[in-house]
TrEMBL record:
SUPFAM superfamilies: alpha/beta-Hydrolases
PROSITE patterns named among the record's database cross-references: PROKAR_LIPOPROTEIN
InterPro entries: AB_hydrolase_fold, Mycobacterial_A85_antigen
Gene3D superfamilies tied to this protein: alpha/beta hydrolase
Domain of life from the UniProt record: Bacteria
UniProt protein name: Esterase
Amino acid sequence: MKYFSFLLILLAFSCQPKQDFQFNISVNPELEEDLKDGRLLILLHHHDKSEPRFAVSDEPGSAQVFGVDFENYQKGKNLEMDLNSFGYPIESWQDIPEGEYWIQAYIVKHETFNRADGHTVKLPVEQWEGRQWNRTPGNIFSLPKKVNWTGKQSLEIVIDQINPPVEEPEDTEFIKHIKIKSDLLSAFWGKDIFLGAHVLLPRDFDQHLNEYYPLMVFHGHFPTDFSGFRTSPPDENLEEEYNARFGIYGYNKIQQQEAYDFYQRWISPDFPKFLVIEIQHPNPFYDDSYAVNSDNLGPYGDAITYELIPHIEKTFRGIGEGWARFTYGGSTGGWEALAVQVKYPTEYNGCFAACPDPIDFRAYTTVNIYEDENAYFLEGPFKRTDRVGKRNYLGHVSAMLKDMNHKELALGGTKSRSGDQWDIWQAVFSPVDYDGYPKPIWDKYTGKINKEVAEHWKENYDLRYIMERDWSTIGKDLEGKIHIYCGDMDNYYLNNAVYLTEAFLESTEDPYYKGEVLYGDRAEHCWNGDPDFPNYITRLRYNTMYLDKIANRLQATAPTEFNLKDWTLKR
């Protein structure tokens, strides 16, 4: 079969001798049809236990990746790309040690958006998989190839694989799936944009048509289906697996048991009835929009609050008023739970924010973006120290902030296109730059902070600052609604921003905030408020662990004409 080639000429840095090698990357003609713009990644791994595309991480065992953008690929013609480009963890090809590696080529396709703000941008394709570059349907790649790397040979690599389409989940008795076109987002992006949700219905939903239910909004990353709910007992033949994150065997069985226990509680006659939704709002930058309006992502906050949620409430007999809506979640979902409560103070009646992403940018993990000059280094007159990025509960550091950002620089380049954590924060919080892409909060390579961008972040997304600035107008609407939980050894130092936010909340007057901020002793990411069980259990219980507080809130705030016993309006 004939193949057309990408000729990748690898040039050395000008101050070093020229390298003596090249790649010849061939693409199967059957995969060229819609190949126009994108980013080509070359990945190397030191073992074959996982494909290189699945092994790029913040940890010391990460695979190696180099990346380069290309545009206007012409089918049947060679495309030369200079791979004197930036790499992670090793920056330069010249420094790759000789040895045996498994090598893989991968293409992240880009599509063109003609946005309503007048900018035309090229961004990764999102195919309802949750913006995972290494799994996106339609992205193409080669199978890993074992090579003896010398840095002086020519290597032939064939791209002949393609990621398959996503299989969407089917409705069940209790779980329904919603997908709607958002008029607000479609207008912004210049193409049809959809929002989705997995909806958990209460028992006997079809038998009591006069019942109307409060809505629990479980925020978080892109869920492929409703999580943590299982109508059958755990699989007796399930082979126990080791979970590296928690350091235990059999976590897959624990997950199934917890999901089944939740189902048993859900159908019991004394369990309160309510709707639970997990929202799907992927976008070209990430698996989640952060549920707020953004210059770069568009009006996701308004789309979720005023389009998606009312549609769900109308379809599934939600009460449809702010006093009957509650938000919760952890990490990304924790930030979202607090953000939507602050941004839409009367549309929700309480938030439970666990291990939230930075809610005070004086502690943007370990960076104060307002006072620090550089995000990557602590600088003195004679010494410069790397700023830490990730730790365990003992304080042992496994990644530096610079390396975590350099990983994204290699994967996605300079336009926030990696699909990873620091790039989505930048995409959500930043103004639009001259070229239509997010304006960097700091130089991705050097770490130098842009104070103008920091000021934009402060005025629009620093949740502690916004509450403090606007407390005289929104404080009354937030009274009794704010609950924040975080481990005091959060892996990403997210507890630092919680400390600062708590100090403000405790200082509030007229009104006092009347909420709750709690910390887990030596608890890592993502502690969510239960001191009696470890993270690996409580993270599976979000849908039940705040119910007592929610019930108390409903008793105190529901209108008198509503019957809280059976969720019926008094006639």
